[in-house]
UniProtKB/TrEMBL annotation:
A molecular function (GO) term: carboxypeptidase activity
Domain Peptidase M28: 444-619
Membrane-crossing segments per the record: 143-160
Family statement: Belongs to the peptidase M28 family. M28B subfamily.
Keywords attached to this entry: Membrane, Transmembrane, Transmembrane helix
Keyword Transmembrane appears in the UniProt entry: yes
Source species, domain of life: Eukaryota
Protein's organism: Maudiozyma humilis
Residues in Transferrin receptor-like dimerisation domain copies: 678-808
Protein name according to UniProt: Transferrin receptor-like dimerisation domain-containing protein
Region (Disordered): 1-70
Amino acid sequence: MPSNHLTVPNHMRSPEGHRLLTPPTYERVDSMSQESADNITDFDLDSIMEDNPATPLNQPSNDFDDDDRSSWAPSEMEFRDVDYGSMSTMEKILHIRHIIRRNVVRPVQRNIVEPVNEMQMFMYNEIDRYLSQYGNPLIIKRFLYIVLMTFFLFIVVRFGDISTGVARGSKGTFSSHRILFDHTKKIINLNQFETHLEYLSSMPHGSGTKGDVAMKNYVRDTLKSYKMDEVFENELRTYSNYPTMNSTLKVFHTNLKQLTTFELTEENYNPLTINGRLSKLSLIYGHYGSDEELKQLHKISVLGKTTGNYILLLKYNKEMMVSEQIMTAQKYNAKAVIFISQEYNGDKNVVQMRSAGLPQFATGDVLTPGYYGSKVNGISPEDSKLLTNIPVVTLTRKQGEVLMSKLSRTGLLYKDGMYSGNINDLRIDLESSTVEKRRQPLYNIIGRIDGREQNNKALIIGAARNVHGPGAMYPNFGTATMLSLVKVLQELKHRFNWKPLRSIYFASFGGSEFNFAGSTEQMELDMLPIRDGIYSYIDISQIGLSNDLQVQTSPLMSKMFQAQAKYMRTFNVSTMPIQTYGDWIPFMANGIPSASLSTPANLEKRMPIETLQDTFELIHELLKDTENQENVKDIIFYLTEVILKMIDEPIIPFDLLDYVQEMDVSLQSMLKLYKHRVDLTDMLRNILKWKKIGNSWHLWHNHWTDSVWKKGRSSENEVNKENRLKWNERLSYINKYMCDEYGLPNRDFYKNVLFGPPLWNEKFFRSHDYNPWSFPAVKDAISNRDWSLANDEVQLIGKMFLDSAEAFMRGLRILV
């Protein structure tokens, strides 16, 4: 084992014949044994043997006192005529060392070090003399040392860690976010963000493809390079399908004369469409395919006396979900749906590859709805409610215009100036062909930063990763933002020795285009730990470049998102209830307060999102603008503020007053619309319990703040801390109290009786319901005009209001 201290090797010892610091006589050196000479290691370069060619012949003796030393100085002739050519390397080094010691070290020691030492000794003596008047100087000095150290520790604990700048409470140990925010502004790296975005957008990366493997490896390796507490990869298996070159669309006149053929490519593809072959069916233009529009078509007999022998031609609509357009077509017995893409910057040859899954019934693997099924076969595709019953294909705008031009100017006239045509205009042969993979692997990449106080409570920041295109605007912008956030938090962690109070996970989910399979299967795999430990989910998949940021959120977090946006320079923040589908749905469905941050273009899936034109070059050009660069930095900074608020505030930043108010407003809206059909008495009476809880929470929150944060300084005693942790525990469960373990009627995947998607969304938007995604079981019954079931659900929710209020407040103290 190597020594941990320095030694002098034999070859560096003074050779025989050298004069030493405490020199024996020459005769004694000559007469010494080799063994004795080898033991002498303390040599000095002031005196060297006369026979050493590097030694001056007229070297003065070492035998002088301090006075002699001060009067002697070497002449410049003493070192002038040294023959370096005849000296070995070691002799040259020793000679130079000798010169430095004589001309630098010794003068400094004599003129600086020794006077300072003498002054220090003088001061020590004077202090001891003074202290001896009051007692033993040694005891007094020790006492003063203890007092000084006590005062220093008090300052550190009370006002913060001087070396790191992290403020801490004397009992609660809370971090100073101001310091963290200030440093965040300095370390946001836009070049690194753009590097991430460029690589993520370098190839199409649909779930289960080679591009997906490359992207998940990149995300995993990047997270590992940031040295998170843990990074892991989950391989899950789900039903997937992929495009082929075998799909075709042939158009005939009613006399069966062929008019044109569209050779469909791999772009004319909707994930989760079914395979099918249809022959000689009529084509009807249905505009957006809303329930009202198709009802009108049926009413004026455009669909024929016997419905079911037609294909519906539709446009995508930002105000109507694709899944609901398909479900409405199925409701009116259409045999297939052909969507027309929007044009992009005048280009009419672009195809939008939108998913055809039906998340209204459940999200996740379509063959194992509601349970984790990576190792089981599940049901057949034909039996799955999550798959369409009809083929779905998408055409370019140019191809769609060709079809519409061959329809007659008869039937229903729409707002876009086009007619529906009639069943005698055209005949269509359609073949939809995809490659089905029932157990195709997909990948979730998850990284964790541990908390230091309530490590078992965690926030999840999630982002979708997959799309059948480059995906620069969506979802890669969100993924690059997530990687930048991890980098910022890890930098704060290492720079300030900071750890959040609660844990945080960063999740890159696969399978989003296949009915949000990655997030849902992860939820089903870890159902118990997620329900127990995850108190919120925030999705940033739909983040992009914009002056507006729309936050769809649980009412528990609405005020927090607005407050953190107060000082943003380059964008405005608005909040609203969640009313769209995404990777947040499985969390919301199980009572976990969720939020989705979107820019308007990404929320509405505007072009070129989900096309092959969504490339990095588009964003690269935009990022050349200084204002856009500042916009990206502001978004990262805003999200950092939100995250720090969520994971490092002593109290989980849920606002119970907003939560109760949202329930009350939604209830009043439903009362106004359906008071003659639905008896809301139980809900109205028992929600008063939650209003009381909201006031109690507000009182306790103010009391805790006044007790702990006195004049900006934290001082939390053990009683306050214990009660605070109990409140955090209950807050983390608040929405889960309002979950029915058996799920909603006919949709048992959805457990949350307060907030969730209704089966039919459009009707409640048209009825001006305040929040169509409130009380979903009641809304489903109203859609079916099943008033008896609607009243049963109202009574169930009313009872849950009462039971959950009692469970929430049990054991909590308001004033301590």
